[in-house]
Design a protein that fits this description.
Two copies of one chain form a homodimer. Chain A is of the alpha+beta class. Among the domains of chain A are: about 180 residues, no CATH class; about 70 residues, Immunoglobulin-like; about 120 residues, no CATH class. Chain A has 15 helices and 24 strands. In chain A, the strands form three sheets. In chain A, strands 3, 15, 16, 17, 18, 19, 20, 22, 23 and 24 form a ten-stranded antiparallel β-sheet that branches. In chain A, strand 12 and strand 13 form a beta hairpin. In chain A, helix 13 runs antiparallel to helix 14. The longest helix of chain A has 23 residues. The N and C termini of chain A lie far apart (about 60 Å). At the A-B interface, helix 12, strand 15, strand 16 and strand 21 of A face helix 11, strand 15, strand 16 and strand 21 of B. Strand 15 of chain A pairs antiparallel with strand 21 of chain B. Chains A, B: InterPro entries: 6-hairpin_glycosidase_sf, Beta-AFase-like, Beta-AFase-like_GH127_C, Beta-AFase-like_GH127_cat, Beta-AFase-like_GH127_middle. Chains A, B: Keywords: Hydrolase. Chains A, B: It holds the Pfam family Glyco_hydro127C.
Chain lengths: ~650, ~650
């Protein structure tokens, strides 16, 4: 049912639910005004996004579109059939950026590139420069690896963003033509369509749901549902990698290529939201739980295997070979956000927070100019870096440049993942200085989170005559907090928290304030005993931030000899000079004396042996997101404690 | 200098040193008569090797040779440019097998396949069915991936084996023609040769040394030296993978593709032996030490990375993703044997023993019909097997079938890696029932090793009038032993052991006996503290055998919940009924009670927390080599101890 009493503009971001959606929550309008994420978004707006067109020019992506449009001559550039998506993701980023305010230069870039995309489209709506130029127009012959529908998906997402953000329809027209073409070709047996098939890389599914939301055309939603449900029936050879081993509705854990799995699950959540499909919802909830309990790194990173960018087995969570693709972190945020809307549960915001501050944000350098495709939790002493896309050193751009524009689009649209509304009020999922509105309600948040734990929320707009509930997520990591609301004060022992939500219902007046103070004492974290990779280790965390040691802060030896003393207190030290201003955590440790065992590194186990002495050393831990911004060297998140 | 006083036949196996070689030791003649390895070799002789021609027929390898010979029509079969080597390795295995005794059937198979190889050779000596049939005869255009010289190397090795074992020259003629062709094409700048280049996969180097030994032609040795030294100069793009990042003489640790690295190092040892090149010897010794201390799994397995089959960083030794290719174990044995001859040191025999009994032997099933390409040290509960060559389940044959015939050739020639002689006497490196001879000396060994520790050595032939030294390797793992020789008895406290060798010098008479009793108490082993993957764990070992738990022996729960109690004694139980007869080790453990932590598997570290109670469980450990011979399921070598 449309919300008749709204005085706020609808949110312009991703996942604008249809009027008919069965979501528990709806995205709230939001504007980020200051603080941690504002700084990161400024770098995105002023460095990363503006540099996009130049990089897409150098890498040949725009050249390929010009070739397909007949507006240039030469060879196709790039090694992959999905290079067009770099352009589409950049367009999506630019669109969300334009939603925040006009920019003549950015608008000109967008207009120019949208025209190029439109010109490259074939008369019947098909568009993929690789297949048009390299494969002689041979379409849909290699659904497993061809990425044609994947490319269509990113085009559609970009077009929806462009339309929502600017009201302009040129790109949406291109996207609809392509979607209509796909709809005319693909369908189940008996539908009379030419191909009963799916794409080896999900993405078109959630894009089609968004296109349905933007246009109201139900057949896009149906097509998305068809694609989701045809996975797992052997159409692509039955491999887990491309999500074809088992139907989603029957799956018991996430598997295969991480980004493929997560985009498919985002679509499942979208479909459950839009259609009320309870079985799909149950599958998505089951798989989310299985993933978080058994296949998620501490950073929120996903995907344990380097080869095939795959999920590993349950509890297989290596540190030095963690893949944790930046795109997988982004896909995880997109999926969890849809789950939060669908269910109203706070835990999805917990994982989003952890992922944003750690596994996601590490993917871009502090200056917005260099990137990580993989996000390991450890770089060893003596590491020989392979270079290339999978390097553990930041790179200006990748041969497979999926991650950088993906980071850009998430950062540019980040305000849309922060708060929701329902008929009962407003829910704050993430603590970011800004303004959040749902219907007649508007609340301002001010905070220096995650450096400080105080979040002040001030009611700006409210219906005068009826109570509503302001819901604040108490983070899963938080052990101590206090909250004041007028005369009332609570702490973690007596606050009315249910399933992660601190709910305050009252008849509010403009200017009413609620102040939440989250305890940010640094803490040591251990893994599930089945996570072999972190046995006997602890990680330093503070608030939502995972910390790590870097070699550059620990001269005089390597990191692999260091042992953390868990009995000594952790100290917090804010360092405005360091890495753009970070709070470091200082811990006590020692360098192990490892006796020379000759040529064989294995020795009799001596469980009663006293801990080896060694030189004391002060450990300086920095937030994981800020690693690899100084000189190359070793890095560790998990530290041995004995 | 030729050994004028020899009354024994020269050993027929690999690495028959040239008269000019500067080796400290020379291979001894040997015949395996009974016991553990005899059984494995019987399976090899009666199942694996006889099935080879049929498998090479089904996989198309022989068909390709017939195509190249113009004796058949059809398409090339197989996906790799090195499929010919499966045939060559099988021929080498068959040749070593024929050296042990005649077999009409096997001889007929060998003759038939040798004729086929000869017929496929081109008039100028070139031979590679992939390039002849698929690449239109376009030679040496892709040295990085083409494997042309690698294929030549295996052909040469097979031909040397065929000649040494049977005295027949047909295959050696083919090999020499190919070697002469290569020598006419490849050479350093200024040599007037057409190509200054190396092969992306070393193998031809050590083969050319062997061809020099077999023919006395010095130019083959020089060509081998040229190839070894041209690695590391960027001829193949400078990548570590194909041993081109750094010259071997400057390298500080093993790196890149494990088999490539190890074959290259075997050639370096060969060259140092034949030429007295001290720098090359120093490099080989340095790299062996670096490899064993930082990059070797407990099983002797080598290569930490699944993608690229590479060595990892120092101390990066994962269990579930250990690659430990069967071929790398074989290459390691080949290299270490050459190092043992070159230096006379016992530690090389230590690593050979460990590798043979564990990382190598796991590569073939007990029935000799199924294989492992990768040899992980752990298969997790809930493992989703990817299938294909890299499966952790045994496979009948591989798409890339390098390992099975490689296992066959090592087993068939195993007697050549057991004992050596020098002017002072005989050295027993491995304890295998059989007869060992060097010059006028012959000794019989009888043992039920590794199940029992008693090894009885009886002098059968000896010069009557002069003393000589019988040297017995005291294994690196051995903490207690006793030795009796006539009236004299020692144990580990007073035995004359220097650097791993127990040396007994006397004037021997036929019938003199020395009895060594190696203590085989099962033991718990820990890793170097820097091996993160095994922190807080112990492995069960007994003698040279690494043990593991398999799911099938532990019903009632998974293996990843199990904790070993290191304070309780280990018990030995011989089980003649199990897995062809094995000694199991029974240990005390418990199943951990892991409290439900909700959806997030990480929790506050509580170092003072008491160990969690849990159900007691008797653990039955089997030798690692015998795993994966019953039903599929989890497996663990390293067991948590807290």
């Amino acid at each position: 049912m449309p919300r008749a009493r709204s005085t706020q503009p609808s949110p312009t971001g991703p996942v604008r639910l249809s009027p008919a959606a069965r979501a528990v929550l709806r995205p709230a309008a939001a504007a980020v005004a200051d603080g941690f994420w504002h700084t990161r978004r400024q770098v995105n707006a002023h460095t990363s996004i503006p540099q996009g067109p130049g990089l897409l020019e150098s890498a040949g992506n725009l050249h390929n579109l010009r070739l397909a449009a007949g507006a240039a001559e030469g060879e196709f550039q790039g090694a992959y059939p999905f290079v067009d998506t770099d352009v589409y993701k950049w367009l999506e980023a630019a669109a969300w950026q334009l939603a925040q305010g006009p920019s003549t230069e950015l608008e000109a870039d967008v207009d120019r590139i949208v025209s190029l995309v439109a010109a490259a489209q074939q008369p019947d709506g098909y568009l993929n420069t690789w297949f048009q130029l390299v494969k002689g127009g041979e379409r849909y012959q290699d659904l497993r690896w061809g990425h044609e529908l994947y490319c269509a998906g990113h085009l559609i997402q970009a077009a929806v963003a462009h339309h929502r953000a600017t009201g302009r329809g040129e790109l949406l027209d291109v996207a609809r033509r392509f979607a209509d073409h796909i709809d005319s070709v693909f369908g189940p047996p008996g539908s009379g369509k030419e191909i009963d098939g799916i794409d080896g890389h999900p993405e078109v599914e959630t894009a089609l749901v968004e296109l349905y939301r933007e246009t109201g055309e139900r057949r896009y939603l149906d097509l998305a549902g068809y694609f989701v449900d045809r996975h797992g029936h052997g159409l692509l050879g039955g491999e887990a990698y491309c999500q074809d081993r088992v139907p989603l509705r029957e799956a018991t854990n996430v598997e295969g290529h991480a980004v493929r799995q997560l985009y498919l699950l985002a679509a499942a959540a979208d479909l459950a939201t839009e259609t009320g499909d309870g079985e799909l919802r149950a599958a998505a909830e089951r798989l989310w739980h299985a993933m978080t309990t058994t296949k998620t790194h501490l950073t929120g990173g996903l995907g344990a295997h380097h080869d095939w960018e795959d999920f590993g087995d349950p509890y297989e969570l290596p540190n030095e070979r963690a893949y944790c693709e930046t795109c997988a972190a982004i896909a995880s945020v997109q999926w969890s956000w849809r789950m939060a809307l669908l269910t109203g549960e706070a835990r999805y915001g917990d994982l989003i927070e952890r992922t944003l501050f750690n596994g996601f944000l590490a993917g871009v350098s502090l200056d917005g100019e260099r990137w990580l495709y993989v996000n390991p939790l450890q770089v060893r002493d003596g590491h020989t870096d392979p270079g290339g896309d999978q390097s553990a050193r930041r790179t200006r751009w990748f041969k497979c440049a999926c991650c950088p524009p993906n980071v850009m689009r998430l950062l540019a649209g980040l305000e849309h993942y922060l708060a929701t509304g329902d008929d009962d009020g407003l829910q704050i999922h993430q603590y970011v200085t800004g303004r959040y509105g749902a219907g007649p309600i508007a609340v301002r948040a001010e905070t220096d989170y995650p450096w400080h734990g105080t979040i002040a929320l001030t009611v700006e707009d409210t219906p005068a005559d009826r109570p509503w509930t302001l819901s604040l997520r108490i983070p899963q990591w938080c052990r101590e907090f206090r909250v004041r609301c007028g005369e009332v004060a609570y702490d973690q022992t007596d606050a009315p928290v249910t399933e992660g939500w601190l709910r305050t219902e009252r008849t509010w007046a403009p200017g009413d304030q609620i102040v939440l103070e989250l305890g940010l004492e640094p803490r040591l974290t251990a893994g599930d005993p089945r996570v072999d990779a972190v046995r006997g280790c602890a990680a330093i965390e503070r608030g939502p931030l995972v910390y790590c040691l870097e070699q550059v802060d620990h001269p005089g030896g390597g990191l692999d000899d260091i042992v953390l003393d868990p009995s000594r207190p952790l100290a917090v030290k804010h360092r405005p000079d360091l890495l753009g201003g970070v709070t470091t955590v200082v811990a006590a440790g020692r360098r192990r004396d490892i006796p020379d065992a000759g040529w064989w590194p294995y020795r009799p186990a001596q469980p009663d042996e006293a801990p080896t002495d060694g030189e004391s050393v002060e450990l300086t831990a920095i937030p994981y997101y800020a690693w690899a911004n100084r000189q190359d060297g070793a890095m560790r998140v998990w530290l041995p404690i004995s």
